[in-house]
Each structure stands twice: as structure tokens, then as C-alpha cells.
Amino acid sequence: MNIEQQLDFEQMKTTALEQLRSGKSLYGKDGAFAPLLKSFLDSALEAELESHLNADERLSGNRRNGKTTKDIRTSSGTISVQTPRDRSSTFEPEIIRKRETILAESLENKIIGMYGLGMSLRDISKHIKDMYDTDISHTTLSAITDKVIPEVKEWQSRPLEELYTIVWLDAMHYKVKEDHRMVSHAVYNILGINRDGHKELLGMYVSQSEGANFWLSVLTDLQNRGVKDILIACIDNLNGFPAAINTVFPQTEIQTCIVHQIRNSLKYVASKDQKSFMKDLKPVYQAETLELAELRLDELDEKWGKKYEKVLESWRRNWSKLTTYFRYDAVIRKLIYTTNTIEGFHRQVRKVTKTKGAFTSDMALLKLIYLAQRNISEKWTMPLSNWATTAQKLAIWFPDRMILDLN
Questions:
Q1: Of 33, 80, 141, 167, whose CB count within 10 A is highest?
Q2: Mean pLDDT comparison of 51-60, 69-78, 174-183, 341-350, highest-scoring range
Q3: What family does the entry list (predicted)?
């Protein structure tokens, strides 16, 4: 029976026009062209088996051995196809491979895209059902998103540039299931600016806690991947962090986040004094020069030192790392005096991960953050504002390390 006899083209044409007007899929369940697509796939599979059963196969005794029915999900819906079999089970179809249930690569890309936007597997399944009239199990969805894992591992070990001008280092914390209980894990992120002024997430690492020892291993990994120098590193006030950085990159100048220092200070200032204390503290970190900042710190100490001795001791103990930004102009100061740049990146990531109460594994966590950063970094196409001027100033401040390509 030829294809014209199998299919009623006049009826197909009438149905197609009706479905086009109503916006229904022509290839999905009950779609006008679904029988045509099924016929094509069935015929293609038959042709593949016929090609497989060549003279040598037939001489060996291999023959046709019936058919099996399989549902194939496509971006237009679900189609049932008849896959022919051979007695020797040596037939490996190409158009629809064994155990393959998703035909359209574009559908897989859509699923990964939705997952990367923070949609749950349940929401993705419902969306696929609504849009394409096809059912996909959570197991299948999970298997599809797992296809990103090799890409994540390759990204984590990719070579890096030799120099990064400014690098921010900070951690995010998530709940991960471990031995049937919830454990807090830290995701260490390193966001950098290369010599051309472009943002780049250099890496992300998972550990059970944020500590200087783990940061040392992170920095060593950056070095092993090709980073030879970092001009300025912006960090929170974690104990031992500066020493960890200078162990791997001894020339790097370190700026501890002013905002973290302020937050920690206010924890130990009585609520009735906080407004007045902050009024006196602002002239310290907003001073135009380091000398003026030191004078304002002395004035702050004179007024509040007896009442909040430990708070002022903390500022003096950390003073050298808190005041690195005074060496630079307003543009550089704004970039480095806080970790706001990487915290802004973290806020964007949390918009994606906020729907997850807990992650089944560290890789499940990294997989989603990787997809989130991939979407975020698509916007990082331009260098930072006025980078040409900033780069020239960095070349003056770091003459043997920041070398401009003026050819």
C-alpha cells in the first residue's frame, strides 16, 4: 500500500486549515500532519533495517523479527512509531536510536533552558505538556539536565588568562542532602575583570564550610589553570583569607570589604547609638585621603572608644586591609571598597535557585548555578565603563604587571 492509499490527503488538508486557524500543533497528538510524520519515520526505520539486512546478514541467518511500538517525544508532540527488529538484534537504527525517547534536540535545549531559569522539574513537565501535548517523566527530565554535567566539568577546568586586574572572592550557602540529612554547603565563587575590562566568573567550588584553608586550595586551582597574577583582590573579613591569597599570589593587593566591616561593627553597637555612630563613622571611610581617614578614625575613637572598645580595636587591627582603596582614584575605589560586584552576581543567581529548598547533591547544585551564570554572562559583552582610562591608570600603578597592548 503506497502512502497516498495510507493517508487521506484531502481530510488532512481540511484538518490542517482548521488547526492553523485555532493555533493547534499540526504534528502533535491528533495533529493533521501527525500521520504523515509517523509514516515518514516508520518508512525510514524500515529502510534502515532493509539496508542492515544485506547479503552477509542474511547468509548468517538474520531475518526480520516483527516490530515494537515506541512513543517518541518531539517539540510538536508525542508520536508512536513502529520500530522493526531483526532476529540477531544487531540492528541499530540511526534516525531513532535504541532507548531514545526524545527525538528533537531543540526540545532538550528548551528543557535545559527552562531548568536554567529556575523552573522545577514539575513545572517543566507541565509546561511541556501544555505547549507540546507530550508527557515527560521527572526521571527523563533529570537525565536530560544531567547532560550538562560534562560541560560543567570542562568549564571548571578550562584554562584562564595569566592576569586579572580585579578579583572578587565570596561564598554562597545552600542546603544539600547528605546521608539522609540536610547539610549546609558553601559555593565559592571567583569573579574577575581581565586586562580588557570584561567580567568573567573564573570558577565555582563547593565545600561544607567557608574557610581560609579551602580558599587556599581554590586559589591554587586558579594558579594551576594559568593565572599568574592578580592586581587587586576584594574579599570579606574572613580570618586568614589575606594570608591565603598572598601565599599563592604574593604581589596581590588586598581590599577587605568596608560594608562587611560596618555590618560586623553594628552588631556590637547598641541600637540607640547606631544612628549616631554611623554618622561619625561615614567620614572615616568616605574621606578623600588616607591621612584624613586616619584623622577621622582618631576622632571616632576619642568619642566612642571607651564605650565600644572592641569595635574600634577591630577597625585598627584591620586598617591596612580596609584602606587599600585610598591609593586609587574614585573609579577604582568604587569598584573595590566593597564586594558589591560579586554580591550583585549572587543576587541574580539566587533568583534562579530560590525555588529549590535543598539540592540532592553538590553536582545538582553546581549544575543549576552553572546554567544560571551562563545566562547571566551572556550580558557581559562589553568592558566596564571607561575601562580605557582605568586600564591606563592601572598600568601606571602596576608598571611591570599591567602591560597595555598598544600595537
A1: 167
A2: 341-350
A3: Belongs to the transposase mutator family.
pLDDT over 60 (residue 9): no
User: Is residue 87 located within the same domain as residue 109?
Assistant: no
Q: Which of 383, 376, 373 is nearest to 156 (CA)?
A: 373
Is pTM beyond 0.90? Reply is no
76 and 208 in a single domain? The answer is no
What is the chain's mean pLDDT, rounded?
83
Q: Is the pLDDT of residue 351 over 50?
A: yes
Q: And the C-alpha cell for 108?
A: 532538550
pLDDT above 70: percentage of residues in the chain:
81
Domain of 337 in residue numbering reads as 159-397
Least confident of 60-74, 123-137, 155-169, 201-215: 123-137
C-alpha cell at 234: 576584594
pLDDT: which is higher, 141 or 339: 339
Please say which residue of 101, 130, 145 terminates a domain: 101
Q: Residues 153, 163: one domain?
A: no
Considering the domain architecture, whether residues 188 and 81 belong to the same structural domain is answered as: no
Same-domain check for residues 82 and 207: no
Number of domains, the chain: 3
